[in-house]
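Re: weekly structure request thread

Next one in the queue (261 aa):
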Amino acid sequence: MFSPTFERFRAWFFFHIWGIIVSVAIGLVIALPPIIFRFSPEFKGVDMIQTNAEAHYVAEVQEIYDGHPALGNPYLEDLKDTPYLFPPFGPHIIAAIGRLLSLSAIEAVLVCRFLLTSLLAFVIYLCGVEITKRRAVGLLVAPFIILGNNLLNPAQALEAILHQYRQYPNVGFIGYGRPINPTISSLFFFSYLLVFWRSLHRASNRIYTFLSIILFGLSFYVYLFTWLFILTFNGFLFLIFAWQKDWAKVKKVALVSVGGL
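Done, posted below.
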């Protein structure tokens, strides 16, 4: 009754249903606090920009909305054609989602705080499953990576329980709710790990090699550290596989690295 493609997707969906549920739950944990502030009667629509440098990232998204996609200078009326200081691809992703959904810049950031964080959590879950072949590992590693600092930091845990904002004035929203970095940069990093792992272990499917090259190359325009992390990771793998004389994987690492560069 259903097409083979639909049946495969249905089987895949129900196989990963708990990973999807956990990822959505993580997205809600990240996204709900600023949304609750926005709609609370006490703040009457005033948005709480509480993650580090969030105002800068919102300004970049607004700059794209205002017709200056080069992001030469988001703050002054002139100097719009100067070379950008921060990689521009992340703000363009949020601006594209915002325009697609007819949202303002700040609304786009709020919505992407849920959408992109949920997607990131699911990609991390898939990495855990792919590497260990155990869904339980994926269900553990996704919340640990995204929420781990807040779960293990005593000051933040105490603040969350007792609401002692004055005692810990630097405590804000969860770090992965910060737009662009680390949300989008981490999404590129873990997506690369996922497809590159598949590229190494599924030699017959070249699409993963192609996706690895694309993600590595684009990461330079998302966040320089993400690009450097991937480059360093590839360098270590190159040396390890060369030591093991696994020349097929040496060639694969070299192909992806050169292609991405």
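Confidence is low (pLDDT under 50) at residues 164-170. Residues 83 and 144 are 38 Å apart (CA to CA).
Next request, please.
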